[in-house]
Amino acid sequence: MDTRSKILKAEAAPRACTVVTGAFDVVLAEDARELGGIRAGHPNRPLLVVVLPLPGELLPQRARAELVAALRMVDYVVTADDAAASAATDMLLASLEPAQLVRLEEAQAVRKRQLMEHVHRRQTS
Q1: Is 84 helix (H, G, I), strand (E, B) or coil?
Q2: pTM
Q3: Average pLDDT, whole number, for the chain?
Q4: With contact defined as beta carbons under 8 Å apart, do 1 and 84 qualify?
Q5: Between vectors from CA 37 to CA 100 and to CA 99, what angle results, nearest 5°?
Q6: Beta strands at 18-22 and 47-51: parallel, antiparallel or unpaired
Q7: Which domains does the chain have, with CATH numbers?
Q8: How many C-beta atoms lie closer than 10 Å to residue 25's C-beta?
Q9: In this model, does residue 80 exceed pLDDT 70?
Q10: Residue 13, Cβ neighbours under 10 Å: how many?
Q11: Is the pLDDT of residue 116 over 70?
């Protein structure tokens, strides 16, 4: 299956999914484990990931969406508008009518920062 076919416009996305939000600027093993655990909680419910815009991103949003779509446990991916403000993102999430909403932005920001610090330490030692 071409994983890019998992990337949908919000209007085409199914409703009543488990919806997970995040930037996914780097996709780490911990992200895959976390998504797998979320999926395992409701194995018969589709898992839809919303890739959020991110100022100062390492990868363009489309590339981040493709990386997430490549994960086996992810059924669908939607990208939020690059210009989306917090209120617009909230409206997008409400339009998806999630059965469950899981927000991973903060956890991912911490993991990204830790990875960058690790790389910096390795480069300076």
Answers
A1: coil
A2: 0.87
A3: 89
A4: no
A5: 10
A6: parallel
A7: 3-124 (3.40.50.620)
A8: 21
A9: yes
A10: 21
A11: yes
